[in-house]
Design goal:
Blueprint (H helix, E strand, L loop, with lengths): L4 H6 L13 E7 L3 H4 L3 H11 L4 E7 L2 H6 L17 E5 L6 H10 L15 E5 L1 H5 L10 E3 L3 H15 L4 H9 L4 E2 L9 E2 L25 E5 L1 E2 L10 H4 L4 E2 L2 H11 L5 E5 L9 H11 L2 E4 L9 H9 L5 E6 L3 H6 L6 H13 L4 E8 L6 H21 L4 E8 L16 H15 L5 E4 L2 H12 L3 H8 L5 H11 L3 H6 L13 E2 L8
Parallel strand pairs: 1-2, 1-3, 3-4, 4-5, 7-17, 8-11, 11-12, 13-14, 14-15, 15-16
Antiparallel strand pairs: 5-6, 9-10
């Protein structure tokens, strides 16, 4: 059943409604559906940070299927105004495939998609998020500026400038924008790489659910960000580089947020790249237990699962537990620097089964560097071993696998390596399905063809923008047609290994040190 914007707004708790009079209107755009976007804590954090300013009114905009099919302009949730009514439009981009939607949103809103074609009558169009912090180049022609890094650090320098200069000459506005630390303005290329900005003390910026609604994937949870950054060195992963150095919130801050959250939801969601490795986890969980809190964790590592933690999670109503072995063989886990062994994985499954877990999900990747057919066979063997453990201890327990092709990402140790050929990936996924599906293991597999598109967007340069601008339909067929017309060499970006002498498209970005100063 289709829900109107008015009904959707009425079902929300915590929405900020402001009068536009005398304020700078900013559209906060998540280039995907409301259902997906409202479970993104980054969106909540930005909404809160912007609306704290008396002189700013921030409203949310999403891209729904109905907008896509009819190519109708999206409007804001709060006042149902189109993007053209706002003076600034800020996109938060978390996934490469949403680049399609970014361009579609601008076109549907009547805003010239290319920055060079816009003038003072158009809103300032900026973007941030993990993808563009790693490599903004495929989207560079569409944006007036990119925030490289974390909003908490960027906004204090950015907002006064926008508020004061938004109605002046466009050239002067862009020049001022380029002077803000961490801002990359494509029309004014910097003399030196733009340095990623990050907040040193997370306790200064508590992040949790701001707007609560049942119309989203995690609608029954009050989400709390526990940490940023990751202590592990998985060589394929973007998180380590984009959110370094690793930082934590204090137990006192987290418990204060939890107390507030329990007035609004019965369950808490603890969010972070490696929550089970939070150094004060037992103290935090003790405090949550005293409150009578039920909770789940966004990430758990197989090598660090204390029994008391598992009891709390399962007792707190977690329906599915997820572990990420990534590779089936010990050899390949060492290649990717995963830092866990098979005994860690099977030991974790034993513990989970003993605590009554009924649904276990395992994440694996195919096409990792140096992968062989034997490594694929090892995925099947390990999965069947885990299923045997569950079957012995938990009648009716279910095991499922999520299979994703390896995609090289900017800023990771594997950034110069190619992804495997699409046909090879298809064959290996088919082999896993034929081995495991008849044994009662459900497999959810990402499309190798779409993963190839993701690789082009992740390692692409500004030539990719021509394809994005020419796409008539957000589909594989539309992508392939535009690629052919623009004569883009997708093989170069997705399937070729780049030598150390190859200049990286994202060399304009400096992601900064691995450790905090001092």
């Amino acid at each position: 059943m289709k829900i109107s914007l008015r009904e959707r707004l009425a079902r929300e708790e915590g929405t900020v409604i402001k009068d536009w009079g005398g304020r700078l209107p900013v559209a906060l755009v998540y280039p995907n559906s409301y259902y997906i976007g409202m479970s993104n804590l980054g969106l909540h954090a930005l909404y809160s940070l912007l609306n704290r300013h008396r002189d700013i009114v921030c409203e949310r905009v999403f891209w729904e299927r109905d907008n896509q099919e009819r190519k109708t302009p999206p409007v804001s949730i709060e006042s149902r105004r189109p993007l053209s009514d706002f003076r600034a439009v800020a996109f938060t981009v978390s996934y490469e495939v949403d680049y399609f939607n970014v361009v579609s949103i601008l076109k549907a809103s009547g805003i010239p998609p290319l920055s060079v074609d816009r003038d003072e009558s158009h809103p300032l169009v900026i973007a941030g998020g993990p993808c563009v912090t790693a490599n903004p180049m495929p989207l560079a022609p569409f944006f007036d500026g990119f925030g490289i890094g974390e909003a908490e650090k960027l906004l204090p320098g950015l907002l006064p400038l926008i508020t004061d200069d938004i109605n002046g000459r466009r050239e002067e506005l862009l020049k001022s924008l380029a002077s803000v630390p961490g801002m990359y303005v494509p029309l004014m290329p910097p003399a030196t790489p733009v340095t990623r900005q990050w907040a040193e003390n997370l306790d200064d910026f508590p992040v949790s659910s701001v707007i609560l609604t049942g119309d989203t994937e995690l609608g029954d949870l009050y989400l709390i960000e526990v940490e940023r950054g990751c202590p592990w060195r998985c060589r394929f992963c973007l998180v380590k580089n984009i959110f370094k150095p690793r930082r934590f919130r204090s137990v006192d801050t987290l418990l204060a947020q939890a107390e507030e959250g329990l007035h609004r939801r019965k369950r808490l969601g603890l969010v972070g790249p490696a929550v089970s490795d939070y150094p004060h986890l037992e103290e935090l969980l003790t405090g949550l237990r005293r409150m009578g809190a039920r909770f789940s964790m966004s990430s758990m590592r197989a090598s660090n699962l204390p029994d008391r933690v598992l009891a709390d999670i399962v007792g707190g109503g977690a329906r599915t537990i997820t572990l990420a072995p990534e590779a089936g063989s010990e050899r390949l886990r060492q290649v990717i620097d995963k830092g866990i062994c098979e005994a860690d994985i099977t030991g974790a499954v034993e513990k989970l089964a003993s605590h009554g877990v009924k649904q276990l999900k395992l994440y694996f990747m195919v096409g990792l560097p140096t992968e062989t057919d034997e490594d694929i066979a090892e995925i099947s063997r390990l999965a069947l071993r885990c299923k045997g453990i569950l079957d012995r201890q938990q009648e009716g327990a279910r095991l499922s696998l999520n299979i994703a092709p390896f995609v090289p990402k900017a800023g990771t140790p594997f950034q110069r390596l190619p992804m495997a050929p699409v046909e090879t990936l298809r064959q290996r996924i088919a082999r896993l399905k034929s081995n495991l599906a008849p044994r009662g293991i459900q497999l959810k597999c990402e499309s190798p063809a779409w993963s190839q598109v993701q690789a082009v967007l992740a390692r692409g340069d500004t030539s990719v923008a021509r394809v994005l601008n020419d796409i008539e339909e957000s589909s594989l067929a539309g992508w392939r047609k535009a690629v052919a017309e623009c004569q883009l060499d997708t093989d170069f970006f997705a399937h070729q290994e780049w030598g150390e002498s190859q200049r990286l498209p994202w060399a304009v970005i400096d992601t900064g040190p691995d450790k905090a100063p001092g």
